[in-house]
Every structure is written in structure tokens, then in C-alpha cells.
Amino acid sequence: MNDIDAVLFDLDGTLCRHTGDADAAYRAAFERIDAELFGEPADLWAALDGPPDPDDRVGYLGAGLARVAAQRGRGDVDPVELAEALVEQLDEIEVELLPGASAALDAATARGPTGVVTNGPRDRQERKVRALGLDDRVDAVVYAGDLPRRKPHVGPFREGLRALGVSAERALYVGDSLAYDVAGAHNAGIRVAWIRGGAAGGTEEDDGGPDGGSGDYRPDHVLDGIGDLAGLLEET
């Protein structure tokens, strides 16, 4: 890929995964409000509608919890109160780079400037970036949660290109979501390497959850894991 001068990465599920115990946090939230447990974290992640609202995290999680409660006939629980308790339990700093992510970053850095485009706001995602040491490894981070529009809108991708000083035709975007990463990058004119299946481990910061098949989307490259990126960049 000699025509690639810069690489932009998604964050959650692409470069990193959460290592905190989501199940323990979920159960602790119920205990905090003295309510009987219903559902599991996976049920909540599946019930969330699109990417998180950076201005109303409690409302975003509360809507998902309301759906899970309705499915189980638990109208006795206040979903907003439960969401407030859950937010207090979640620890976004408990993250680690996915296997192969460090090698992928090294390969991308060897090619040119690198950046991250994440849908979350700075006040949450910057802690992850620092905990992972990415602030010293990439040239720019775009926090789409603080922009007028988040992925899959083209704004965050164009901001990433601007920050790296590269044209869309000379950039590659790497992400694990078809609906947010592939669709958004293509709309911005950027080639995309899609990581099949995703690996975020389930958090409300994911871009709508992992995708199992490409369907109507047409990523330019399909990777089985982030570790495959180095080989892709070496292809001529």
C-alpha cells in the first residue's frame, strides 16, 4: 500500500478493550439502589440505541435499561436512578491494548502520521488515551463527542485528516463498526480496513456494537484482527 501516507484508528474495539468487570459493575448498581437484579450487561449493550450521547450519559443508559426492564416486566425499577448508579460503577480507565495493536501502531507510524477518531467526548476518552499511552504514540486524537456531529457523519473524519495534514485519498481508516466506521469513512472519501467481528468487550462507548458480517457495506479491506494491519500496510 505505497499510496497510504497516514492511518486513522477507531479506539474502542479496534485498538483497546475494557478489562474492568462489567458484570460486577452492573450487579453493584442494582445493589446500590436496593433493587432485584434483572438482565445482564450484554442485554443492556444490545438495547442501547446507536452511539452514546456525550451530553447525557445517564439518559442514554437509562433508555437502554428502560427497554431491558420492559422486556422483563420490571416496571418497579426507576431506569434513570439505576443508570446513575451504573455510571458511578463503571471505570473507563480499566482498558488495555488489544493483542497486535502495538505492532499495528508501530507499522502505521512507520508509514506516516497517525491519529485516533473516537465517538466519545474528551472528558471520558482522554483518560483511556492516556492510560493506554496513546498520547505519546499518535499525532492527533479527535473526540467526536465534542463535535457538532459524531461518526458516521463525515465531520470527525475530516477533522482527523485536517489534524494529520493528509488528503482523504492518501489515508486509511481502521475500525470495527460497519455502520459507523466503514460508512462514515467512505462518505468522507477514505479507504477503510474493517476488523471483522469487533472486540470491544461491551461498553456504552462502542459504536453501536460489533458487526458480524459486511452485509450491504463494502470495506476496502477486511482484517480478522488489528494485528493483521501491519501485513496489509506492507503489501505493495
TrEMBL record:
One of its GO terms (molecular function) is hydrolase activity. It comes from the Archaea. GO terms for biological process: small molecule metabolic process. Its EC number is 3.1.3.-. InterPro entries: HAD-like_hydrolase, HAD-like_sf, HAD-SF_hydro_IA, HAD_sf. Keywords: Hydrolase, Magnesium. The keyword Lyase does not apply. Residues 201-220 are annotated as: Disordered. Its cofactor is Mg(2+). Belongs to the HAD-like hydrolase superfamily. This is HAD family hydrolase.
